[in-house]
User: What shape does this take?
Amino acid sequence: MLALTGGLVLTSLDPVELHAADVVIRGGRVIGVGTAPDGAIRRDCGGCVVVPGNVCAHTHLYSALARGMPYGLEAPANFLQILQRVWWRLDRALDEESIRTSVLVGGAAALLAGTTTLVDHHASPNAIDGSLDVVADTLEGLGIRCVLCYEVSDRDGPERAAGGIRENERFLGSARPLARGLVGAHASFTLSEETLAACVDLATGKASGIHVHVAEDAADQRDARARFDAPVVRRLAQAGALTDRSLLAHCIHLEDEELALVRDAGSWVAHNPTSNMNNSVGHAATGALGEQVALGTDGIGADMFAESRSAYFRARDEDVFTSITWPLERLAVGTRVVGQAFEEAELGRIVPGAPADLAVLDYVPPTPLTGKNVAGHWLFGIEARHVRDVLVAGEAVVADRRLVRADQDKIAADATVEAERLWERLEAVPPHPFEPMGA
Assistant: This one.
């Protein structure tokens, strides 16, 4: 039995609830929030704030070795060219070792930033078979929770599309303590009718959801109208891909009809504001998407303190009446996405019975910290550098700002070598020739 003693405990992000209490943990779960019993192993958290572990609701860990990656081609002029000249080249250069190293780098950074769950959307067209096991094994080795899928797409031909379906099916049949699966699909504009139908059939048969990019760029809409005479979301809905277990990433270029379809289906939406700004693709109408909007990074790290801040400032720039609690509510939705996948309704809260996924912040507030002003401290004070300890399923995976299960210095050193190998292979990969209709 472990007791985190003497701290302030943020038991819930939505609604915000803050208490001075000890957190008692046993068997991977919180068993009490109050006074630690005699005999418990104590971890002093005096002067600290104990918070639920953050969730990144949409990421691409395979991109972790792209930091500083050399680029010698003509600069992309639009989002499609970013895919063709950068990401669809990088994913074709991946092999098993570069996948593993990318996941180590991304997973380690997530834990050190207080992120306890990653919802990953993986692609490696020349290393499909078993790739999700590589991702899951690596993340579970670090001690982080995950929800994984393989990105099915027709852009690399029918054989690889079928391989992606098989990889999702195989992984959905596995049993792991810290990993669950969804059915991954790239985006409407790279999916044939047959491939989308196969994704829906698999998701239906496995009682799973589809994790898919939706109208991240206007090219997705142009293709859907050119091929199917329907906007993207209507196409997905007609195919049966829109359910209350589906996770829709971005949802930027949606019409009113589509916004209503997403709301009515109860689908989850992963909002990725930093990536959207970086790719200059626009801003999602988050207010019109309902209460199912979570936050992701789209592969730009996994620091959800920073991402929630970016989300708030971008939303505030659009609408001065954006509530200061709005980003905390979005983070809470992310925990519900994962809670659904793991069938853990209390995941994301620090209450008796909940999985003990939490972070201890060595945050000394310069002004009073109360239940009424937590959001103000979250947005204008708390940062990833304050993360001291992290627990996942009750086990310490970060202690005193160091990884417990892995040597983070060795991860960085090995990644430097592997990145150079990956970048060298990348030089031989030409821009991807795939073009959507109406591009």
